[in-house]
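Re: the 164-residue chain
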Amino acid sequence: MAELYGALKLYSQDYEGRLPASSLSGRVTAGKNQPFGWAQACAFTYSNYTMLCCSTATSDVSGDAAARGFVSYWINGNMSGRKLSLALLPVKTLLVGEGDDGVDLSNAAYAKTRFSASWLTNHSKPPFRHAGGANYLFVDGHIAWLRPNVVEHFGGRSDPFAFR
């Protein structure tokens, strides 16, 4: 996840401090391939697709960026295309988290704006992937392992996905 944060920062430096939008065009423009989503844009920037997958997930970054299972992490959809510097509480705002439960469309545009009820209670879901918790990357760049019930109200916030 630290490598992924580095790629997001590099991308943002090239685009006036903005994160990639969760969903991008994915078309060919002026002979250049454009990324399909945020994950592919980061991998293009950093030239490393393996950073898009947790080693315990079943994602396949060598495949089609538009297909399910391309990435095992989601990006906070509320941060899509926004400037990192504008987040009100960067230390308490989720940026990237564990995903790819086999149900979500975990392609290169994989984004979440909240957890569904099943993600907070079903132990087979990604928030329980690592010994009853999961890893999360925050807007300020720190990474934390948290249990799902802690993520829901991290740092006293009612919505850790909130941008402002």
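The beta strands are 28-29, 32-33, 73-76, 94-98, 111-112, 134-138, 143-146.
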